[in-house]
From TrEMBL:
Domain HTH tetR-type: residue ranges: 10-70
UniProt organism field: Ferirhizobium litorale
SUPFAM superfamilies: Homeodomain-like
Keywords, ordered alphabetically: DNA-binding
GO molecular function, one term: transcription cis-regulatory region binding
Protein name (database record): TetR/AcrR family transcriptional regulator
Pfam families: TetR_C_41 (PF21351), TetR_N (PF00440)
Highest taxon of source: Bacteria
DNA-binding region, residue range(s): 33-52
Length: 197
C-alpha cells in the first residue's frame, strides 16, 4: 500500500512539474496561475503545496530539472569533442549556447534568478561545479592546466559560462551577443591551459 501511495505521489509531482514548466515557459513565472496549472493536471492546490511548499518551490523544481538537462546535454557535447581541454571548452560553450533556447532563457536565466536568487547557490549549479572541478583535476593530472586550485578554476569557469548565458538571455539581441560571449569565454578559459615551450 505504501509503495502504491509513493508511486502516485511521484506521478503527481511529475505532472505538476511538467505543467508548471509549460506554464512558466509560455507565460512567465509571475503570470502563471497555480489554479489553472493544478486544474490542468486534475489536482488540487493542496497537492502543489504538499509537494513543493509553494509556487516558488515549484519553480525551483522546474529550474532544477531544466538545469540538469542542460548539464547532461553539455556533457554529451563535451564527450563528443574528445578528451582533455577541448571537451571542457565544448561543455562551457554548449551551456552558453543554450541561452538561445526560449524555455531556458525565460525559466532558468530570467525568472530563476529573479525569484530564487543567485544561481551559483542553486543545488543544480553545485552539481555542475563538481563536474567541472573533476574535469580540471583530470586535466591537472595530465599536466594540461596551470598549477591552480581545481575548485577555484572550476568556480571561475562555471561563473564565466553562467554569466555569459545570463548576459545573452537579458540582451535585446541574444543571437548577436552569443558569438561575442563564446569567444570571450574560450579566451578566458584558455588562460588556464599549460603552455609548453
Amino acid at each position: 500500500m505504501a509503495g502504491k501511495r509513493a508511486e502516485v505521489m511521484e506521478q503527481n509531482r511529475a505532472r505538476l512539474i511538467s505543467a508548471a514548466r509549460k506554464a512558466f515557459a509560455e507565460k512567465g513565472y509571475a503570470a502563471a496561475s497555480m489554479d489553472d496549472l493544478t486544474a490542468e493536471v486534475g489536482l488540487t492546490r493542496g497537492a502543489l503545496y504538499h509537494n513543493f511548499g509553494d509556487k516558488r518551490g515549484l519553480l525551483a523544481a522546474v529550474v532544477n530539472q531544466i538545469d540538469a538537462e542542460m548539464a547532461s546535454r553539455a556533457k554529451g557535447i563535451g564527450d563528443r569533442a574528445g578528451d582533455g581541454w577541448e571537451a571542457l571548452l565544448a561543455e562551457g560553450t554548449a551551456y552558453i549556447e543554450m541561452a538561445l533556447n526560449p524555455e531556458v532563457q525565460r525559466i532558468v536565466l530570467l525568472d530563476g534568478p529573479a525569484v530564487l536568487g543567485d544561481p551559483s547557490n542553486w543545488p543544480s549549479q553545485n552539481n555542475c561545479l563538481q563536474a567541472t572541478k573533476e574535469a580540471v583535476e583530470r586535466l591537472a593530472a595530465l599536466g594540461m592546466v596551470q598549477p591552480v586550485d581545481p575548485e577555484a578554476a572550476a568556480r571561475l569557469l562555471n561563473g564565466a559560462a553562467l554569466n555569459a548565458a545570463l548576459w545573452i538571455a537579458a540582451s535585446e539581441n541574444p543571437k548577436a551577443v552569443l558569438p561575442k560571449a563564446v569567444k570571450a569565454f574560450r579566451f578566458l578559459a584558455s588562460g588556464l591551459m599549460l603552455r609548453t615551450p
